[in-house]
# Entry
Amino acid sequence: MFQNRSQKPLSRRKNLFINMEQDKDTQQRIEVTFLGTGTSTGVPVVACDCEVCTSEDPRDKRLRTSAMVKYNGKTFIIDCGPDFRIQMLDNKVEDIDAILFTHSHRDHIAGLDDVRGFNYILNKRIAMYGQQNVLDFITTSFPYIFTNKRYFGTPQVDLIPLDGDPVTIENSVIIPVRVHHHKDIIFGYRFGNFTYITDASHIDEEEFKKIEGSEVLVINALRNSSHISHFSLQQAIEVVSRIKPRDAYFVHMSHFIGKHADVEAKLPDGMHMAYDGLKIIV
Ligand SMILES: [Zn+2]
Ligand SMILES: [Zn+2]
Ligand SMILES: [Zn+2]
# Structure
């Protein structure tokens, strides 16, 4: 069903290995936890009795897509969807330093109110980064947070706009990657040799350059058939085959993609179905 991606030339692999060894001295390791790997409905889908939604394999239970990236000793959360609270609890997250938004769709922002736990317990505000249009949408979607007549106990957040240029947050350089999501331009993020992209349907040539050299790439793969605003699995495989990271992980899957174990077994070398709770070291 899938083409095996071309093998990296041995010399390049060797170079990568040497670079990785050098990086251990010069660069902090990056730890990534997949907090959620499902599309906007989550899996199981409410009221669905398909074989994926009724699977007993815990890897077929997918909360809405989000990830935690520990980089240079700081904790970044990418997106804050409706499952944010349970994702923080399931993964015993005790502190976060910033939330980075990819875009303003509900499945990526709906859990924002639940940063209150961090506000209350740690007595700190939460910094949230995204494109100005995303922050504007958040402001109108959660008006009670941003009004002058705030109700006691509402979330305490700081919204900080990103213009798409590399940005230093908490002493770490993070590179936004602009990708198409149907008619919208949304952000992926690159941290060192790790790039995270979700909800993409097309990537322009100049943005590919920002992703090249990534050791680990996360990319969205909705299902097998094509979709207007999301890469299919085959399209996601094509992106990975071009970038040739050491490992690639697919996210934002719907129940139509099939069961984790069945799909994983057919993927080319180095490509994986991510699943909720999976932790990787880059
Ligand atoms: Zn989404
Ligand atoms: Zn289903
Ligand atoms: Zn979306």
The first helix runs from residue 10 to 26. The mean pLDDT is 92. The pocket of zinc ion (ligand 3) is lined by residues 103, 105, 181, 199 (CB under 6 Å).
